[in-house]
């Protein structure tokens, strides 16, 4: 992989929590067969199919979102430790190839199965976002840096997120970071100005990994170490509120049970999750707005 290299800074942090009761916000609908190998984040593609970063498979798995049947595997062997996938408005695709310390960039779905030959360096990257403004945001987890790129060139960085995972865009263009090690969510402007921090016992974070944002601005967060999926209203009084929970806090298999869930993709009233240690994708349907 030919990379446009860059130098990035470093930092550290951490902190604990435990949460209040909240009702389920969706009901179990469907599960795929356990055909994956530690699936991480996932996203709906522009073709209406579901794309999953299959970490230990070093590939992108493609599913039919209606049946959760596996359609094909792409890039097998080219994407060591792959954690995240993001689709840009122009049809481009960013893939966080963690063990390569890079975000690979593809021009279109037509070449997603090929060996990547362009991208940016981001040590230990676990999250990538192709923003609606055209820029790429990458979480260089190994050095705790959120980096912003334009045309593959580094524009700006913000430090203080060692071990952080996802970078997700809200409807207003704001950026949410799942700050795993610090057990919190952090909101930034597109210019990387810090706007909000969601943390504390009310949310019970034990390891938020990946998230997605609903059309109404709710955050849907996979709290891996708690074996739960959380729905959070970031605009509620007092700096946000926990409004819904899936999972009982213990690892398991079956409706309303997860084992180390990581990925989240919201598609209207449907929620797709990577049930990572069960090596499958599950779908839930909304029951609470």
Automatic annotation (TrEMBL):
Question: Keywords in UniProt for this one?
Answer: Lyase, Repeat, Signal
Q: Where are the NHL repeats?
A: 36-66
The UniProt entry's coiled-coil ranges are none
What is an example of a GO molecular function annotated in this UniProt entry?
lyase activity
Q: Which domain of life is it from?
A: Bacteria
Q: CDD domains of this UniProt entry? A: NHL
Q: Which residues form the signal peptide?
A: 1-19
For whether the record's keyword set contains Lyase, the answer is yes
Name-wise, this protein is Streptogramin lyase
């Amino acid at each position: 992989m030919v990379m446009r290299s860059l130098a990035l800074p470093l930092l550290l942090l951490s902190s604990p929590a435990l949460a209040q009761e909240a009702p389920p916000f969706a009901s179990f609908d469907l599960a795929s067969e356990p055909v994956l190998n530690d699936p991480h984040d996932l996203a709906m593609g522009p073709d209406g199919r579901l794309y999953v970063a299959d970490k230990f498979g070093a590939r992108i798995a493609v599913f039919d979102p209606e049946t959760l049947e596996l359609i094909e595997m792409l890039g097998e062997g080219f994407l060591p430790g792959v954690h995240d996938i993001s689709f840009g408005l122009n049809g481009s695709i960013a893939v966080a190839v963690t063990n390569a310390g890079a975000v690979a960039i593809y021009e279109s779905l037509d070449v997603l199965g090929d060996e990547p030959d362009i991208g940016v360096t981001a040590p230990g990257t676990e999250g990538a976002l192709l923003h609606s403004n055209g820029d790429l945001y990458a979480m260089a987890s190994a050095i705790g840096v959120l980096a912003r790129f334009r045309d593959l060139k580094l524009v700006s960085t913000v430090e203080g997120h060692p071990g952080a995972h996802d970078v997700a865009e809200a409807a207003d263009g704001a950026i949410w970071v799942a700050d795993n090690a610090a057990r919190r969510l952090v909101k930034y402007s597109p210019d990387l100005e810090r706007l909000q921090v969601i943390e504390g016992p009310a949310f019970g974070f034990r390891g938020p990994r990946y998230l997605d944002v609903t059309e109404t601005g709710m955050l849907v967060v996979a709290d891996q170490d708690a074996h739960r999926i959380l729905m959070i209203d970031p605009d509620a009084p007092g700096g946000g509120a926990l409004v819904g929970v899936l999972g009982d806090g213990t690892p398991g298999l079956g409706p309303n049970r997860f084992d180390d869930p990581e990925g989240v993709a919201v598609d209207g009233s449907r929620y797709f999750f990577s049930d990572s240690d069960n090596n499958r994708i599950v779908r839930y349907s909304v029951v609470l707005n």
